[in-house]
């Protein structure tokens, strides 16, 4: 039996895939502990999870876009998170004595502590952005700036000199929750001498006490569409939601739509549109015919695995990369988050619903993702690290 300490930013899209891996390790008899905000982690992980609490304020989300989003993500969130959590991570390591740390690429306090103590650790890549590092080629100055922020966190932790390597990639290996077309350009991956990248595809598992949903609202005689723009983008998506609502208005005889947004986001809601702040996405997916999304890696992967094509309106981060991959695979279409008109959005959505080739392509890409092995493959990789 080995002991694994999991560290993640307090973001649902980062925790969920890692939680599925943790569950797979526990089923195999290993001991797993998490270090982080108990108030955030407990609802996602369940009453039985072993959590070393590190008090944290909730993340406010992010209104910035483009390079501004990159700057605030690193300077305003990732580096401060590392500084605030490092001592808590050290305390968790002292108390739990892990054999291996499993570290979200953005939870760099885990990488710093593991390096300082000579512990084995493995990076977990929850997004395509850090995996392929597109700035290295397109905007090398931005990549250099990111390395400067990582060095800042390293120095703030009292470590001498510069980080021995890119702290987003463990020399013991990186597990990426993607595969196939969604994995992006492997030219951006670290060299094998830096970190071996294992593409395991989406890491899915039954979610703890998901939000309730009136499944009997779904009319089997109509098609079903989910609209979700991510938990961190709801505030900046209000105008997009309005255009989506206008696109959906005339389609009540053909479909029903579930819109994931804060209550009262839409001024008036038609009978065939249901607005909910949270929904059990994995429970709904078998009933869906299309997803309108921002293009977050988890949402895209989950849709493809269920053979559901997508209309993607990317906002920031790796979402444009995911949208391009889905469109190239014939499993969906990309539209402009800022400029798509309701009539164009309606036409794109109906095109996906009316031509079964889109769903077939989504299913084919989803099968490629599943073939990568998911949480069980990740657990197997991690279990080998204590015995290397």
Weakly predicted, low-confidence segments: none
Alpha-carbon Rg, integer: 21 Å
The spatial strand order of the largest sheet comes to: 3-2-1-4-5-6-7
Described by the principal axes of the CA atoms, the overall outline is globular
GO biological process, one term: antibiotic biosynthetic process
Signal peptide: 1-22
Pfam families: EryCIII-like_C (PF06722)
Domain Erythromycin biosynthesis protein CIII-like C-terminal: 264-364
Question: Could you characterize what this model shows?
Answer:
The chain is 43% helix and 15% strand. The strands form two sheets. The chain has a seven-stranded parallel β-sheet, sandwiched between helices. Strands 10-9-8-11-12-13 form a six-stranded parallel β-sheet, with helices on both faces. By secondary structure, it is an alpha/beta fold. It has helices spanning 12-27, 38-45, 66-96, 108-117, 128-132, 135-138, 140-156, 238-248, 281-284, 297-305, 319-328, 342-354, 356-371, 374-385, and strands at 3-7, 31-36, 51-53, 100-104, 120-125, 174-176, 197-199, 223-228, 255-260, 273-276, 290-293, 310-312, 332-334. The protein has 14 helices and 13 strands. It folds into two domains: 3-201 and 372-385, Rossmann fold (3-Layer(aba) Sandwich), CATH 3.40.50; 215-370, Glycogen Phosphorylase B (Rossmann fold, 3-Layer(aba) Sandwich), CATH 3.40.50.2000. The model has no long low-confidence stretch (mean pLDDT 91). GO terms for molecular function: hexosyltransferase activity; UDP-glycosyltransferase activity. Keywords: Signal, Transferase. Residues 1-22 form the signal peptide.
